[in-house]
Amino acid sequence: MSQSPTAAPFTARDFRNALGRFATGITVVTAVVEGATHGMTANAFLSVSLEPPLVLVSVANKAHMHGYLQQTGRYGVSVLTAAQEEYSQHFAGFGASELQPEFVEVDGMPLLAESLAHLIVTVTDAHVAGDHTLYIGQLEYLKSFDGEPLLYFQGRYARL
Predict the structure, then answer these.
(1) Is 85 helix (H, G, I), strand (E, B) or coil?
(2) Which residues pair with 60 in a beta bridge?
(3) Among 3, 73, 92, 117, which is 20 to 30 Å from 61 by CA?
(4) pTM for the complete prediction?
């Protein structure tokens, strides 16, 4: 029988690097507050339940979106295509400020045009987890489209 290695201490950078090896899709989460559209890039997004249809997005407690979701209790999700890397950068705060995203509005919620999927979600629960809050919500609206996804892997954009 071989001996198992002992657990070694790790840094926050080690943790981030290891989890960076999990390829994820990229979304833009949107909310409307006082008539203004706000968006945030998120790759910590996942399905939670099929019945009822629930999803989860993880939002940093220091992010503006954290306050917006607490205020509105409703958000949109646009799953990005490989051609929408510029939107990912923009809503992460790294893109060109002059970029004018094209939205389609569904039931008062702005969703990025030409995305792979559109979801509208009502927050049903929120759990503080360390420096983030996990916003769980039930789907109000769902529509999917054909295309290639934009992925994130080891701190860089990737494609299938």
Answers:
(1) helix
(2) 132
(3) 117
(4) 0.90
Task: Single out the residue of 34, 22, 93, 106 nearest to residue 63, CA to CA.
Answer: 93
Number of other residues whose CB lies within 10 A of the CB of residue 54: 17
* pLDDT digit string, tens, across residues 64-117: 999 999 999 999 999 999 999 999 999 999 876 788 999 999 999 999 999 999
* Token pair recorded at residue 103: 């939205």
Taking alpha carbons only, the member of 87, 85, 70 closest to residue 31 is: 70
d(CA 56, CA 70): 14
Which CATH number among 2.60.20.10, 2.30.110.10, 3.50.50.60, 3.40.50.720 corresponds to the domain 24-158? Answer: 2.30.110.10
